[in-house]
Design goal:
Blueprint: H1 15-23, E1 28-35, E2 42-49, E3 54-58, H2 63-75, E4 80-85, H3 91-94, H4 97-103, E5 109-110, E6 127-130, E7 134-140, E8 149-154, E9 159-164, E10 167-168, E11 171-172, H5 180-191, E12 199-202, H6 207-217, H7 221-232, H8 242-248, H9 257-263, H10 268-280, H11 310-322, H12 326-329, E13 333-341, E14 344-357, E15 362-368, E16 377-384, H13 386-389, H14 394-397, E17 401-402, H15 404-409, H16 422-436, E18 440-445, E19 461-464, H17 475-486, H18 490-496, H19 511-514, H20 518-523, H21 531-538
Parallel strand pairs: 3-4, 4-5, 9-12
Antiparallel strand pairs: 1-2, 2-3, 6-7, 7-8, 8-9, 10-11, 13-14, 13-19, 14-15, 15-16, 16-18, 17-18, 18-19
Helix pairs in contact: 5-10, 6-7
């Protein structure tokens, strides 16, 4: 191991001792490759066995930054690249796999089951070798994602762990697909059991913002030392150990009385949950806790009723500060598209989907008319995999629509957050579209805002998606106006998504466009459908 011996903040070895330690049988060389510096601050890692020059590349998410570094060493005969290794499936870690494979042929992809192009998922505690000198152990740490794996590696003299988005220096990942109990297990049972001198290589450089949160909870010497080091160093990967993390990382100090006092909890899992909530609500730039009073502005919509009172504003603010809103916080994607009424496909309505994942085969989305805080909840959509869709009865399948045209045409977008570089968000959006393109959706709208209803009147309306050009007059103008509002280009998205494979759409889906007449389609009962299914398909136009 060439790294960190001279840069450990807690001590400095005499040069003589350092030279002697480096002379010991050393096999592991680690090269950090920063990606998207200044925005998401990711790391890819090239790990080489010095004895054989066999090497693996960990999380090469951005091939334009990673591939040239790897290729130069491959061409020079310095390394023999043997595998791509991933810590989890998120696009900013595994999203570069296919492009790397296009340049470096026939490599296995070792990682969680949901990683792009994965070929092998080792079991928990399963080991393999890099060359002859490095032993690798897979440590399953589900929470940030359910397929998260930390990779513990050791040679004869050094121990390291690549933690992805499970453990950061002074922090941990968000619980996107897991629970506080799972993160507690990951950090305080699985990773905490590693030798204290195991050096930590996380997936992002987040130390500066993490230490601000630590300092708001703990004012100890280890925290102060980390703070000083972070202020004076741009990179902290490999500079700290599991033992160090136990000293200052509050997510690994759940039994500390000061940490428990700060959270108001004593049970370890409750403390973990409270810490994550606190961290989520802190602005890393000024350590100010953000309590959003969403109704403080005198915002209006077309809903019937009186304006929101100050009392309601205060109640909303208190609820936001004190309640968990678990299902809402599980929402992980905002998708925007247009729906048509199955009973009248010439009626089109804008749909802002806020989606969460129940599992890898089922998603559920709340649909609002706008993305504004005072938006009206107008419907719901369920999305399922093609595998589940095929298990449905024929009459049920006819209630579902495909997403292929929406994805491939650029009609379906994932509006980006303010301040994030466009290129990074486009990569994330495109990866999301790779998943959505093969899903089937079942959608009902309850509030017919397109006809001016002031309340959700009548029965639910089954909705469908567009499946081709020219299906509604004026659609291109609608998309153009939407693009202008969100500052995107559907045409550019269509070009960028050209590589996405177009799955075959089941013949029973998208029935509103497949029958000879759309109007006749809304009147006819599908073969085998019950009277209830027919009424849902037809919808209700009367407001009473």
């Amino acid at each position: 191991m060439y790294v960190i011996a001279l840069t450990r903040p807690s001590f400095a070895k005499p040069l003589k001792t350092l030279a002697a330690s480096l002379a010991v049988t050393r096999a592991m060389h680690i090269q950090s490759i920063p990606m998207w510096t200044g925005s998401s601050n990711n790391y890819a890692y090239l790990v080489r066995d010095d004895k054989t020059n066999d090497a693996v590349i960990i999380d090469p998410a951005n091939p334009p930054e990673v591939a040239p570094v790897v290729k130069e060493q491959v061409d020079a005969g310095k390394i023999n690249l043997t595998a791509i290794v991933n810590t989890h499936h998120h696009w900013d870690h595994a999203g570069g796999n296919k492009k790397m494979l296009a340049q470096f042929k026939d490599l296995p992809v070792i990682g969680g089951k949901d990683c792009e192009a994965v070929t092998r998922t080792p079991k928990h505690d399963e080991t393999f070798k890099i060359g002859s000198g490095i032993t690798v152990k897979a440590l399953h740490t589900p929470c940030h994602t359910q397929d998260s794996i930390c990779w513990f590696m050791e040679d004869d003299s050094e121990k390291v762990v690549f933690t992805g988005d499970t453990l950061f220096i002074g922090g941990c990942g968000r619980f996107f697909e897991g629970t506080p109990a799972e993160m507690h297990t990951a950090l305080n049972k699985t990773l905490s059991a590693l030798p204290n001198d195991t050096k930590v290589y996380p997936g992002h450089e987040y130390t500066k913002q993490n230490v601000k949160f630590l300092a708001s909870v703990l004012q100890t010497e280890p925290v102060k030392k980390l703070q000083t080091f972070a202020e004076n160093n741009e990179q902290t990967q490999g500079k700290f150990t599991i033992g160090d993390e136990k000293e200052y990382n509050v997510f690994m100090k759940l039994n500390d009385p000061t940490v428990q006092k700060a959270t108001g909890k004593t049970d370890a899992v409750d403390v973990m949950e409270a810490l994550r909530e606190m961290k989520n609500s802190i602005n890393p730039e000024n350590r100010v806790i953000i309590f959003v009073m969403s109704a403080t502005e005198n915002v209006t919509n077309d809903a019937q009723g009186n304006p929101i009172t100050t009392k309601s504003q205060v109640l909303e603010t208190g609820a936001a500060a004190g309640q968990s809103f678990g299902p809402i916080k599980a929402i992980c994607a905002h998708l925007h598209a247009f729906h048509v009424y199955a009973s009248d496909p010439q009626r089109c309505v804008e749909a802002n989907h806020y989606c969460s994942h129940l599992n890898e085969d089922v998603r559920q989305c709340l649909i609002y008319d706008t993305p504004a805080p005072n938006a009206r909840l107008i419907g719901v959509e369920y999305m399922i995999s093609a595998t589940l869709y095929k298990t449905l009865s024929q009459s049920e399948r006819k209630l579902w629509h495909s997403h292929v045209f929406e994805v491939k045409s650029g009609m379906l977008i994932m509006p980006g957050p303010e301040g994030l570089p466009t290129g990074i968000w486009e990569e994330a959006e495109t990866k999301e579209m790779e998943d959505v393109v093969g899903l089937y959706g079942k959608t009902y709208h309850f509030w017919q805002v397109d006809r001016g209803d002031k309340l959700p009147l009548g029965g639910p309306e089954l909705m469908m998606s567009f499946t081709g050009e020219g299906q509604q007059e004026g659609l291109s103008e609608l998309i153009g106006e939407r693009d202008s509002r969100f500052k995107v280009s559907s045409k550019q998205k269509r070009d960028k998504r050209a590589y996405i494979e177009e799955p075959e759409v089941h013949e029973d889906a998208d029935r509103v466009w497949k029958d000879s007449s759309a109007s006749e389609d809304s009147k006819q009962q599908p073969a085998g459908a019950t009277s209830d299914e027919t009424s849902l398909l037809k919808g209700t136009h009367s407001p009473t």
